[in-house]
Amino acid sequence: MKYRKQLPFLYSQIGSMLCALLLLCVACESRLDVTPQSNLTDATYYNTAEDAKAALGACYYSVSNPDVFIDLVGSDDAVPFLTGDANRPLLWRYDITPDNGFIRFYPGAYTSINHCNIVINRLPTIEMDETLKQRYIAEAKFLRALAYFNLVRLYGGVPIVTTETAGLAGLEIPRSSVAEVYAQIEQDLTDAEQVLPVNYDAVDKGRATRGAAKGILAKVYLTRAGTESGSPFWQQAVIKAKEVIDQGVYDLYPTFAEAFSLSARGGVENVFEIQYLTDVRGHSLGRGYGVRAAPIYPGGGAGIARVTSSLFNLYQENDQRKAVSFISSYSYQGKTVQLSVTDPNPANAVSFQKLWDKSATTNGGEGTSFPILRFSDVLLMYAEASNESEGTPSVSAYEALNRVRQRAGLEPLSGLDYQSFKEAVWLERRLELTFENNRRFDLIRTGRLVEAVKAENSFNRNAQIQPYHVLLPMPQLDIDVNPLLEQNPGY
Question: What Rg, from alpha-carbon coordinates, does the chain have?
Fold first, then answer.
């Protein structure tokens, strides 16, 4: 199957993110007098405000985001296409080795980190507007923190690099501890939230904001709290999530469908997102995770992974999110095809359509945004952290949870005890945030990954998951480059 060969490119396109929109805004600016790039050196570059802007653009272009495939088939949300690349079912069954190509998020994250380090290290010496300079540096710190947050959640402690790498020298760096990585993340986000603006004019919509820094910091604290009921991180998560809510900048769209429309790009619900332009610089997530061989997509559906029955059947019939998130039938040339969560034929499988841009006419041209953090996520983080911090659901925790439920068309909840409320939030996160790189991380931080994966045994999964699988193996290719990288236990 040719599509798998396109995946590295597809997911490098996730790194083209905001840049697709941001660069479009500057595309009309004539810079015919620039030095040819082949002649650029340290002496001729990083000297002007335009150089600073371009350097920051590289950070957005390479923004860190894990392959959503890991989240889907590494949890209980999806079953991979079971023929073709053998690494797909091996990852799904947790027969994971360090040379599995699907776990190699590591090098892309450090590319992003290096671009951010260039901005953070070089911009202080550039003569330009000081306010703009500090904002650019804050944006780079936010993006660097995002890269390290994804790295530490996937692999555990990793090398901390805060200066730019210009060549092969100095690549052999040992792993720092998990606590040290989180300290770096917290410092970068704290620095960023103090400088970043609350919002931007239309031309800069999509850049990192103060709310984005606070919101990711809330998720950092939620993750660090883990399963510890008395952790001080719960209250810190409450504070940061509440600060995002109280800004009054973000809100839920009236309907769930609107949150994933093309018009939602840069909109009120997306605290931070990966932005694309239809048929200009798009993604293939709708086609890629669509119905295999279905002619309704440009190039036909790839069927990378299908929806599990355990996820699909969780939705109440009046839950608006079900029809938006999944495609359960389609019509083509007068014929209607009904799809199933149990039929083994991938051409008949209920599939993901949440991020499908139906207006795209080219393979890989979909322009819908990929959400890194939506406001509904912030509301649910607040509800969960508040319940944990206070030991019982408060009025404001109910309000946050029920805003998400009622937007989906569900009745508000009330009268729950601490445990029931916690489980209600966990369920709501799964229903609300599927296909958004949250499920596996949520299962890990709440100590439920092994149980959930073993329980999802459709299509003879028989996962060989063990407690050590909460971390992926360090990719073998990266250990070969840096022998000081120690492999995670169990691999």
Answer: 22
CA nearest neighbour of 431 among 76, 74, 89: 76
Q: Residue 333 has which token pair? A: 């040339």
Task: With both helix axes pointing from N to C terminus, report the angle between 233-246 and 210-225 in degrees, rounded to the nearest 10.
Answer: 160
Higher pLDDT, 279 or 22: 279
314, two tokens = 């969780």
| Number of helices followed by number of strands (H, E) in the chain | 19, 8
| Per-residue model confidence (pLDDT) at position 52 | 97
Residues sharing a CB contact under 8 Å with residue 12, sequence separation 6 or more, in sequence order: 108
Instruction: Give the rounded distance of the alpha carbon of 100 from its chain centre.
Output: 21
Residue 437: partners with Cβ closer than 8 Å, 6 or more residues away = 65, 66, 68, 71, 372
Highest CATH level, class, for 1-27+46-67+105-204 = mainly alpha
The model's pTM: 0.91
Q: In this predicted model, what pLDDT tens digit does every residue of 285-297 receive, in sequence order?
A: 999 999 999 999 9
Task: Say what percent of the chain tops pLDDT 90.
Answer: 88
What does the pLDDT read at residue 44? 58
Answer yes or no: is pLDDT of 255 > 70: yes
**Cα 2 to Cα 12, 344, 414, distances in angstroms:** 17, 21, 51
CA distances from 248 to 30, 245, 432, 471 (A): 38, 6, 21, 37
pLDDT category at 366 given cuts 50, 70, 90 is very high
Contact (Cβ atoms closer than 8 angstroms) between residue 33 and residue 290:
no
Domain definitions of the chain by residue range: 1-27+46-67+105-204, 285-368
Alpha-carbon distance of 472 to 98, in angstroms, equals 8
